[in-house]
Amino acid sequence: MVPSAELRVYQPLEAFSPEEQSRWERYIVEGWHLRPRHARYRQRVTPKGLGVLAEGGEGADVRLAGGSYYVCPWRTRLRVLAGLLAFREAAPFEGSQGFVTRDDARKATRELTRLRKRDPSAISHIMQSPWHVPVRWFVLFADDERHLVEERGRHRLKYVTTARRAIRRAEKTIPVLRRTDLSSVADVIVELHEWLSSFDPRSIVELDYGRLSDFLTWDDLDNDHSARDLQDAVNALSSEEFPRSAELYQAVIGHWAEVRGHESLN
Asked: CA-to-CA distance for 138 and 140, rounded, in angstroms?
């Protein structure tokens, strides 16, 4: 599996439709924590000779907070289809469209349309980023929401907040960026805001470094305060302290460019 960071939204159980709520209640009762966190994959050979990875099931991440359950459905099929189309549209390198042909893209579009017609409320609860954490995600969090934890003998860095706070922080940042030549950055924050606004405001938002933490030492993780540094950069920008803002922003960018450098080594 490619090391990736994830931005997850856990909705209160009662925020789902009655049908889906019943499904997740059964999932929790049947022992959700005993199931594998990631989908299982196997390789298939197509007539074109290309290997295809097929996921083997759906599920959800579950949190218990304040005596209530919060659920983050994986919706793997939905995310895979959307990812295929985004990859083809982005064309990240020469010849990349050969990985997702025009015919494959048409099939993915048709199936994605069917899924959304069947359930108009279906939306991905997870954003995934291979090899790095997108700097824009840190806009949603404060430094006191940072958690350095140990899981299965490995250290992991996470941020946890509520959707209401995350939305408010995005709304505060967007006009600051609009007043400068960073309007393109504001646009991606607007996309984040629109995504979060699709969920119940009581939802829990989690940024999980995941296996990216393995590329950082304990000291690296302990010293990583990317959300604080980015918030300081935005505040400096708001106060027209442009050199300080640029210095803070470039420090965060540089840190994650260094982490992303592991991609070229793999």
From this structure: 5
Cα-based distances in Å from 44 to 47, 53, 70, 77: 10, 7, 35, 17
| Contact criterion met (CB below 8 Å) for 131 and 262 | yes
Between CA 207 and CA 163 the distance in angstroms is 12
Where are any strands of DSSP class E within 38-169?
41-45, 51-55, 60-65, 68-73, 126-130, 146-151, 154-162
Give the integer Cα–Cα distance in Å for 131 and 105.
25
Q: Find the angle CA(195)-CA(197)-CA(202) to the nearest 5 degrees.
A: 120
Q: What is the mean pLDDT of residues 176-205?
A: 92
Q: What is the pLDDT of residues 84-119, one digit of tens each?
A: 666 666 555 566 566 667 777 777 677 767 766 777
> Confidence class of residue 166 from pLDDT cuts 50, 70 and 90?
very high
**Nearest alpha-carbon partner for 122 in 110, 131, 132, 114:** 114
Residue at 63: amino acid letter: R
The pLDDT of residue 34: 53
Distance set, CA 181 to CA 150, 173, 177, 236 (Å): 41, 14, 7, 15
Residue 46, φ and ψ in degrees, nearest 5: -95, 170
Closest Cα to residue 83, out of 45, 129, 48? 129
- Compute, in degrees rounded to 10, the torsion defined by CA atoms 212, 218, 223, 227: 30
